[in-house]
Write the structure tokens for this entry.
Amino acid sequence: MGAESRGHVIVDLRLVAARVAGGDDAAFRQIVEHTRAPMYRLAARVVGDLAEAEDALQEAFVDAYRALREGRYDGRSKVETWLYRIVTNACLDALRRRRDTPREAPAEPRFDGLVSAEARVALRELDALLAALPPQDRAALVLVAVEGLPAKEAAAALGCSEGAVEQRLVRARAALRARQTEKEAPHA
Amino acid sequence: MPDRDDERTELDRDLARLAAATARLDADDRFTEAVLRAAAAADDPLARVARATGDLAPDAAFTEAVLRAATAAPPPARPAMADGIVRSGRAAIVVTALAAAASVLFFLRTQRDVDTAILASVETLEAIE
């Protein structure tokens, strides 16, 4: 049982990451169990589809595992922050794939046993709302307006400057407002 | 059996009692916060989605699937610096060998020319003497 599940012990995932780097595969389980809920939430919100979010998240965790084993995590940032960026990148890849090859029909998620009906409806609404946005703008909006990250952390997750994040937010909000105005305009 | 006026009076009395009992009803500050949050969420679909998806989490089978996927394929070996040298050095080795051969040929040819020139000079000197 992981220490974090006892509730009163704060797990320093940097130490756990060091154990993974040293070849301790079991330590990686601790990282996954500790971070899977916020990362699942992030992926679902950015991608807007549970099945695609699960694929992107699995891909991100596998990338993280390899990076740890190959010594590519330097421990300067928190593991959670580092994972945030990896998951965001995997989600951006998923959105680009979807843009290049539109889905015929949404796939069925496999690990959604804990997801409420309200959350499913909200994700569909979110996906429809953000569908027309470019992946980077969409991700910036989700990170700041839905995940509640400050622009600095959103910039770190997206691998760009804070200024670029602000620009993306302005662009995304303007696009959503224009879309809303179009919907509300009386039909000629 | 009371008539209708008596019933109305009794009803009025009950309503008045209930009105008095509820006259001081008030919500605490949390209510205001909740209303403001709900109003903001109603106005902002993103805030509503954020609230509705706040408890998203995968089930336990997800962890097992991730661990299987991560450990199934061994991590690719890190490219060693020697790999790069070997890969890029193959062409360099051929070019260097050709250059070395050309240099040797040039040296031998030049040496022969020099020898010929010296011999010619010596012969010329001997002829003069």
About this structure: The helical segments of chain A are 13-21, 25-47, 50-69, 79-100, 117-130, 135-146, 151-158, 162-184. Residues 97 and 103 of chain A are 9 Å apart (CA to CA). Residues 1-6 of chain A have pLDDT under 50 and may be disordered. The radius of gyration of chain A is 18 Å.
